[in-house]
Amino acid sequence: MKRTGFICLLAVLALAGGGALPAFAQEDASPVKNSGFYVLQVPVLKIYSHSKGYIAEYRKNFMGTEKVYLPLEWFTRNVDTKEPLKGEIVKLRDGRVMPYMSIYYKDGKTDHVRLYVQGYNHATWGNVSPGVNLDDNFNGVEEITIVH
User: Fold this and answer.
1) Are 47 and 117 in contact, with CB atoms under 8 Å apart?
2) Closest listed residue to residue 59, CA positions, set 42, 71, 47, 39
3) Is the separation of the CB atoms in 60 and 148 below 8 Å?
4) What is the pTM of this model?
5) Rounded CA gap, 24 and 41, in Å?
6) Which residues of the chain, if any, have pLDDT below 50?
7) CB-CB contact of 100 with 41 (8 Å)
8) Minimal CA–CA distance to 40: which of 142, 137, 110, 141?
9) Residues contacting 46, CB < 8 A, separation 6+
10) What is the pLDDT of residue 36?
11) Residue 25, pLDDT score
12) What one-character-per-residue DSSP string does the chain give?
């Protein structure tokens, strides 16, 4: 009996062509949808603190990891300008939620990024070794490109 009900449900969905549900969902007129913003959320494996900013390491498909370099200037406010911050750190509550970043693109360009992180004593935080020079990776960063 349960199997027959399941088959009937599949038949109804097939006859509907799957178009009824997505069409209904597309009626959403939320401000984010109509504002030109696109949000990409990326789980973060490790966050490294550096004197020039933050390095967020994430998993690239199933074949390794990749890093993005986020300059410190994005996270600090300049008192002379009233421009909004390009970067923000949001502390997560203690628990099992792993860090992630939300990258906001507007009209195809990086608008801002939010790093959702556990406290600085969490295992996902790391430091760059003192002898490693990564300064050039932070210079001139304007866009965040996620490699899949």
Assistant:
1) yes
2) 42
3) yes
4) 0.72
5) 24
6) 6, 8-30
7) yes
8) 110
9) 56, 57, 124, 125, 126
10) 81
11) 40
12) -HHHHHHHHHHHHHHHTT-HHHHHHTT---HHHHTTEEEEEEE-SEEEEETTEEEEEEE-TTS-EEEEEEEGGGGS--TT--PPPSEEEEEPPSSSPPPEEEEEEETTEEEEEEEEE--TTSTTEEE--TT---HHHHTT--------
Length of the chain measured in residues: 148
Dihedrals φ, ψ of 18, to 5°? 70, 0
Supply 17's token pair.
Answer: 């062509």
What is the residue type of 45? L
